[in-house]
Design a protein that fits this description.
26% strand; Homing Intron 3 (I-Ppo) Encoded Endonuclease, Chain A; single chain; alpha+beta; three-stranded antiparallel sheet; 172 residues
Length: 172
């Protein structure tokens, strides 16, 4: 058997020995007392990046990855996306296996956005808007437009054309 699969199965066995996963709430709860751990308490904590993490056998593991392992018996080949963008919402129906490109098509609006729309920037003259989209690892220019609404529509159309997730560009 593949050593990677063996390692995943051993981790899954440890998780199931000490915790229970509720797919409807996304929470892991302790089912076995060890040290200061109380049975019935929510396992893990939220780290500085907003992801819930669990300590298993002295090592940190991201809860969304453990939820995936718990549900499907193996880790995905690449990444796990939180569909609604809430990093500690680990309900299984909020998680999807994606590659890096797909994951980036469901990102929130950047904090430094001056327009409030992903892929839209105001030109220096303050009278027009530059529109662009990222696709297949390339930045694609979609032109400069004098009308803000038209620029927004062009960007949204590009998101549909390049299969961006409907949540892409959300404010939070």
């Amino acid at each position: 058997m593949d050593p990677k699969v063996v390692k995943e199965l051993e981790l899954l066995k440890q998780v199931k020995e000490f915790m229970m996963y509720n797919a409807d709430t996304g929470a892991f709860t302790w089912i076995k007392q060890t040290g200061s751990i109380q049975v019935g308490y929510i396992a893990g904590n939220v780290n500085y990046t907003g992801y819930r993490r669990l300590v298993i056998d002295g090592k940190y593991h991201l809860a969304h990855r453990i939820a995936w392992l718990y549900t499907y018996g193996t880790f995905p080949e690449s990444q796990i996306d939180h569909i609604n963008g809430i990093r500690d919402d680990n309900r299984i129906d909020n998680l999807r296996a994606v590659n890096n490109s797909e994951n980036s098509k469901n990102s929130k609006l950047r904090n430094d956005s001056t327009t409030g729309i992903t892929g839209l920037s105001e030109r220096r003259n303050g009278k027009s808007w530059r529109v662009y989209v990222q696709a297949d690892g390339k930045l694609i220019g979609l032109g400069t437009h004098s009308d803000f609404f038209e620029a927004c529509c062009i960007r949204k159309s590009a998101e549909l054309e390049y299969n961006y997730h409907p949540n892409h560009g959300r404010a939070t």
